[in-house]
Amino acid sequence: MKYFQLLALILILGSCNNLPSAQKQEAETKTDQTKQVSDSTPNEALKFKSKGIQTIYNAYEKLRDALVATDYETAKKFATDLSEALKKDEENMQQASMVEGIISAGEIEAARVAFSALNDSMESIFEGSLESGEINKCYCPMALDNTGASWFSTSKEIKNPYFGDKMLKCGTIKKTIK
Fold this sequence. Notes:
By secondary structure, the protein is α+β, with helices and mostly antiparallel strands. It has 6 helices and 5 strands, in the order H-E-H-H-H-H-E-E-H-E-E. The longest helix is centred in the first third of the chain and has 38 residues, at 2-39.
C-alpha cells in the first residue's frame, strides 16, 4: 500500500513540475510571434506602382500579423505607422480615420472590430495598384460573432487576424488581386 502512495506522490509532483515549463513555453511562443511581427520584412515579390501604396501595404501587413499574434500593443504601433502612411497619400488619406479606431480601441477584440471596418475600404486601394505579385482577399465567416470579416494577405496559408491562435486557420481565399 505504501508503494502505491509513494508512486502516486511521485506522479503528482512530477506533473506539477511540468506546469511552470508549459507556461514558460507559452510565454516564449508569444514572444516569438511578436518578434516575428516586428521583424517581418516586406514581401519581395509584391510591387506596387506607387511607393506610397507599397508603404501602406507593408504597414498593413505588420498590423495584420500583430492581430494574428493577439498582440494589441504591437498592433497599435503598426496601426500608427499605417495611419501615417495613409495620411501621406492624398488619394487615400480618408482611410486614416478608420485606422484611428484600432489605435484608440484599448484592447485586442475592439481593435479587431475596427480592423474589419478598415478592410472594407482597403480593397479599393490595392485593386489596380499592383505592378507585380498578388494579394489574396481572405474571409472568415465566423469572425465578429458570425457576421464574417475579410483581410488581405500575400500568403495562400490562412492566418486569421480575428481569432489568432484560437482559430488560426479559419477562413478561405475569396479573391486574388493581381
